[in-house]
Specification:
By secondary structure, the protein is α+β, with helices and mostly antiparallel strands. The protein has ten helices and 25 strands. Strand 7 (101-107) and strand 8 (112-117) form a beta hairpin.
């Protein structure tokens, strides 16, 4: 009987870890990425940080410049952590004059519940109001426009913005646009006041290993500040036996041991799980992500662990390739071609790019021509005689002039590729469009 009870408890602990992992990751990311200093408010006294303010990446990511794996070289990031605990917040966006941008809004359970930008709300200057869960106050008439009022599922939100950049020469124009993204309280917006960031204590060490005590403390605080959907009440009642409940106190020794053992079992399994669908061509399609993960807590945990901040698939999808058409691992000791036939380029409404990564560290690959990605905005690409496009992927520079123009430099060792498709058309999401296979041409000299 004791063994049966232990098995049931272990299963419950694993279920609880899977359910709660996204909350823990959001706590970690908030502590790691919320600014301690901002231009309008100066330095926040440690350990406090600023929220309700946009911060901007001013440089395109290159080799060694990223704190996240598989970074993109197409956009500049603009992000903000928002606390709606005191009431609605207003986001003003600039007129990007048709330039692609998106603000992806994640609730504290990592659901990408809303997107602002070209696909859904256009690129003209406008204002959006974010209201807390259940808020029913009066709003100015300016927010009567379709899509201008957004009800947040949770008190805390993470806004991750991406603005398209057409190379280093384009940076000043994008910097000016970044400065046009502003967040204010509704009262300050109505009064025309300047933004006023708010200080908060993240109370989290983002570099700490997933110790059961630290994990439980972060999850309990997150649950108190961001109550789960009503349908999860029974689930949380069961997790209370493990100390994972908004009203739970400090873990006892048994709870700590159960959670620590569950973390040790669950995390390796999630890391070893392939998130997407592998095709015969060697490409792996990312999982389809919608505005909410619903009750698919395993997928939610997997995306939070490996791809936190992922946009809804209708906004962007990211097929990956680690192997060629014959199933062999990609390696810089070989040369490859990727040919898109006539009329068979990735079907997108915004843009697409193919980015190179070193398999050792999942970072961009340093190269002498400073080309980290190639795609529909790359200047001087050479098209084939029939109108198709053949990209060359290899370590050494191709001798042929046309191949050199279409060259994506690879490292000397193992690598992988990510094809980013922004605002993909339906056929790219439902499987009707298939990416061409990577063909190995032979060894380099």
């Amino acid at each position: 009987m004791a063994a049966t009870i232990d098995t049931v408890t272990d299963t419950l602990a694993e279920e609880a870890v899977v359910y709660a992992w996204p909350l823990y990751e959001m706590c970690r990311m908030r502590a790691a990425t919320s600014p301690q200093r901002c231009e309008t408010a100066g330095e926040a006294p440690a350990p406090r940080r600023w929220c309700n303010v946009f911060t901007h990446a001013r440089k395109l990511l290159g080799p060694g410049r990223s704190r996240v794996v598989t970074p993109n070289n197409d956009t500049l990031y603009t992000h903000a952590w928002l606390d709606l605990g005191a009431g609605p917040l207003v986001i003003d966006v600039p007129d990007t004059k048709g330039r692609y941008y998106v603000l992806g809004l994640l609730d504290f359970y990592t659901n990408p519940f809303a997107h602002l930008g070209q696909r859904l709300t256009g690129t003209a200057a406008r204002s959006f109001v974010l209201v807390p869960p259940g808020w029913r106050g009066a709003l100015p008439a300016a927010f009567d426009a379709p899509g201008a009022r957004i009800e947040a599922p949770t008190r805390w939100l993470w806004v991750i913005g991406r603005i398209l950049v057409d190379g280093p020469h384009d940076l000043p124009a994008v910097h000016a646009l970044q400065d046009g993204f502003v967040v204010r309280t509704l009262a300050d917006w109505q009064a025309g006041k300047a933004p006023q960031p708010m200080a908060f204590d993240p109370a989290c060490d983002p570099r700490a290993p997933p110790d059961a005590g630290h994990f439980a403390a972060q999850v309990k605080r997150a649950l108190r500040e961001n109550p789960p959907p009503a349908r999860d009440a029974d689930r949380l009642a069961r997790y209370a036996a493990l100390g994972l409940h908004p009203d739970a106190v400090v873990l006892d020794d048994t709870q700590r041991e159960r959670l620590q053992d569950a973390l040790a079992r669950v995390l390796p399994r999630l890391r070893a799980t392939e998130a997407g669908r592998a095709a015969a061509s060697g490409w792996v399609a990312m999982p389809t992500v919608e505005a909410s993960f619903g009750d698919d807590h395993r997928l939610r945990a997997l995306v939070a662990l490996k791809y936190i901040g992922m946009l809804e698939s209708r906004e962007a999808t990211y097929p990956l390739a680690w192997h060629d058409a014959a199933g062999r691992a990609l390696h810089g000791s070989h040369r490859y071609s990727l040919r898109f036939g006539p009329g068979a380029l990735p079907p997108v409404e915004a843009f697409w790019s193919l980015t190179m990564y070193d398999s050792r560290d999942c970072m961009l690959v340093d190269n002498r021509i400073d080309r980290y990605a190639i795609g529909d905005r790359t200047p001087a690409l050479r098209h084939d005689a029939d109108g198709g496009l053949t990209l060359r992927i290899q370590h050494a520079a191709p001798a042929d002039e046309a191949a050199h123009a279409n060259w994506l430099p690879a490292p000397a060792g193992a690598f992988y590729l990510c094809l980013r498709a922004y605002v993909p058309r339906a056929e790219m999401l439902d499987g009707r469009y298939a990416l061409p296979p990577l063909q190995r041409l032979g060894d380099t000299e």
